[in-house]
From TrEMBL:
Name of the molecule in the record: CobW family GTP-binding protein
Protein keywords: Chaperone, Hydrolase, Nucleotide-binding
Domain of life: Bacteria
Family: Belongs to the SIMIBI class G3E GTPase family. ZNG1 subfamily.
Domain CobW C-terminal as annotated: residue spans: 218-303
Lineage: Bacteria, Bacillati, Bacillota, Bacilli, Bacillales
Catalytic activity from the UniProt record: GTP + H2O = GDP + phosphate + H(+)
SMART domains named among the record's database cross-references: CobW_C (SM00833)
Pfam families xrefs: cobW, CobW_C
Sections of the chain in a coiled coil: none
Length: 304
């Protein structure tokens, strides 16, 4: 009799390190002699993070909506297609940062898949600086963040190199009032994956029905650069963006540079990564109550 396929769900708020955890978990599975498949959800109409997944990995994508609400019906269809295609030993689902993980669990535990999947648990990444500055979040966003932590089987308190050691006991105490699951302090979402052998699912009763497409007033802007931009002007623009911009990620064509650079931004911190090949100049911005047209015009102005 074939064993059911283990399923891990990666959760965590925007910019907390889920995709980095995904890459680390993929490499662990490969080294362990197992072939993983990935189901990836992105809130925008274009995929950015899928470029991070090796071409030999079975990949399904759910774009332009939140896996837990607006496109939940497509989730079951994608799961069925992955099973039909086969050829994998483990399934890793990465949700968008504004997804409520419990609603995704409901789909995985559907009677349709009861004899095919074994749900292992939710792995949640928490950006330690975002947690420290959580008062800047809306009430709804903070509620979602807390529930992502509450229903996790394992919490990765990530980016610990950015926080003072004196704050660590206080932060751990705060998180331990929300979850009884194990909390691991990490940098770059690196953990000993032997920890996964000991995780257990938690009681999902009492989860709220908060929806990213309604309660959060979420805006997603996908901008495609028509021309290259001055790096200094772009950096100046990023320093002035609204505090309700939670996440930006994409490929930006800078003047006098051969290929567009990968730019990532979360909670006021931009990161730039040079690329060795030409990537589509798409840039995704996610936040609450954003003036989308104003932002679009500013980005267009940078390319003039």
């Amino acid at each position: 009799m074939n064993q059911n396929i283990p399923v891990y769900l990666l959760s965590g708020f925007l910019g907390s390190g889920k995709t980095t955890l995904l890459k680390n978990l993929i490499q662990y599975e490969k080294k362990s002699g197992r072939k993983p498949a990935v189901l990836m959800n992105e809130a925008g109409k274009v995929s950015i993070d899928s470029e991070e997944v090796d071409s030999d990995i079975p990949l399904a994508e759910l774009l332009d909506g939140c896996i837990c609400c607006t496109i939940q019906d497509k989730l079951e269809s994608q799961l069925q297609q992955l099973l039909f295609d086969g050829g994998f030993d483990t399934l890793i689902i990465e949700t968008t940062g504004v997804a409520h993980p419990v609603e995704v669990v409901d789909s995985v535990l559907s009677p349709l898949f009861a004899d095919r999947f074994e749900f292992k648990g939710i792995l949640t990444t928490v950006d330690v600086m975002q947690w420290e500055n959580r008062d800047n979040l809306s009430v709804q966003a903070l509620q979602l963040l807390r529930e992502q932590i509450r229903f996790s089987s394992l919490v990765l308190l990530n980016k610990m190199d950015l926080i003072s050691e004196s704050r660590i006991p206080f932060i751990l105490n705060e998180l331990q009032t929300i979850t009884s699951s194990k909390i691991i302090m990490t940098q770059h979402a690196k953990i000993n994956f032997a920890e996964l052998k000991n995780i257990q699912t938690v009681d999902y009763a009492g989860a709220s029905n908060i929806r990213a497409d309604k309660e959060l007033n979420l805006n997603v802007l996908v901008h495609t650069f028509s021309d290259s931009v001055e790096r200094t002007l772009f950096e100046d623009w990023m320093r002035e963006v609204s505090s309700t911009v939670y996440r930006m990620k994409g490929f930006v064509p800078f003047k006098n540079e051969k290929y567009p650079s990968l730019v990532q931004y979360s909670y006021g911190m931009p990161l730039y990564f040079e690329q060795d090949m030409k990537m589509p100049a798409n840039f995704v911005i996610i936040g609450e109550n954003l003036n989308v047209e104003h932002i679009r015009k500013e980005l267009e102005r940078l390319a003039l």
